[in-house]
Specification:
By secondary structure, the protein is α/β, with parallel strands linked by helices. It is built from twelve helices and eleven strands. Helix 4 (85-99) packs parallel to helix 9 (239-249). 33% of the residues are buried.
């Protein structure tokens, strides 16, 4: 427990540096930090905490001005040479998606990352990990104010997911597959909101088919994943198809949040009663009780002014079949 003097000092500090929107969180942060000396943590722990807070602060201040723009995270090998057709494909895809008013986030290194920054130009970010090899920032992002350096992979990976609305994966090595598995796992477990995940390759290549054969031949066969988990991603071999997969995902669907036991889906435009009836017919398996229906903003949404002018539908989601939830979003976008 903290003594009264420390609690009073925290309250006074919060009143001076915070505002009514963040008082609660500032108090939680400062209280947690002030309690740490009561435990025998070492200097390495303090270093980790200090650097992590610093990297989060830099990330938030870099991305906050652009929160109104949807973004695509692009992954792929740092070793892809500019002479490789995949490099030019990544350049062209990044330019095409930027032309559709999406921004791009890459790991800021060479290969596919460089191609992503090159194609999107000043519509791109770089989240660069400090490594002893392979990972100096590329020429297309190294002098940009949208470049953020990281010591820690876990914060960098958090920002990739937190700040993006879609994921595009070009062929790559361990790092690329790590991001692929993490993205799929976060959606499958509900720790990330629905998003398009595109597995991108050049026509005639079989990189992703070979990877996916392990899904179907082993994991799906032995029950380690569900059939609806295969709906979490889309394999594309043309730029137009990849751009369409991403842009169409947000054609009518806008966003989702959970309010208590309710999944609340906010839409860019109203859908009809007949459309809602179609959803009830098609997705009764993921509704725990009641039905899918239109609703007004919940008090929790009003309190934070969370897209309160958007049309919304809600239902009691089972929070298990997230692949089916992605399929619901895709159906909504066809109305």
């Amino acid at each position: 427990m903290l003594n009264d003097d420390v609690v009073d000092a925290i309250n006074r500090l919060v009143s001076k540096i915070g505002d009514k929107t963040n008082h609660t969180y500032l108090k939680e942060i400062l209280t947690a930090v002030c309690r740490l000396p009561q435990h025998p943590i070492d200097s390495g722990d303090w270093k980790l905490l200090a650097r992590s807070i610093g990297e989060l602060k830099t990330s938030f201040t870099t991305f906050t001005p652009y929160r109104g723009h949807r973004k695509v995270a692009i992954f792929g090998s740092a070793r892809t040479e500019p002479t490789n057709p995949l490099y030019q494909m990544a350049v062209d895809f990044s330019k095409a998606i930027a032309d559709r008013d999406f921004m791009v986030i890459t790991g800021a290194g060479g290969g596919i990352m460089e191609a992503g920054n090159k194609g999107a130009g000043d519509q791109s970010f770089g989240v660069n990990i400090k490594l002893p090899f392979e990972q100096s920032a590329n020429d297309y992002i190294k002098n940009s104010p949208k470049l953020v350096p990281y010591n820690y992979f876990f914060i960098r990976k958090l920002m990739f997911i937190k700040e993006s609305d879609a994921t595009v994966l070009f062929p790559g090595g361990f790092g690329t597959l790590d991001e692929a598995y993490e993205g799929l796992t976060l959606i499958q477990t509900g720790k990330s909101l629905p998003r398009p995940i595109v597995l991108m390759q050049h026509p005639g290549h079989d990189y992703w088919q070979t990877w996916l054969s392990f899904f179907t031949d082993i994991m799906l066969r032995d029950g380690y994943i569900s059939p609806d988990d295969m709906d979490l991603f889309t394999l594309c071999d043309t730029i137009d198809e990849a751009v369409d997969v991403i842009t169409s995902f947000y054609k009518i669907y806008h966003s989702l949040r959970y309010v208590g036991d309710h999944a609340v889906i906010r839409l860019n435009q109203p859908i009809s009663d007949a459309n809602i009836a179609q959803l009830n017919d098609s997705f009764t398996d993921i509704v725990v009780n009641g039905d899918i229906h239109a609703c007004d903003p919940f008090p929790q949404e009003i309190a934070t002014r969370d897209h309160i002018k958007k049309f919304r539908i809600t239902f009691h989601f089972n929070k298990i079949n997230f692949g089916r939830l992605v399929s619901m979003v895709r159906m909504i976008n066809t109305f």
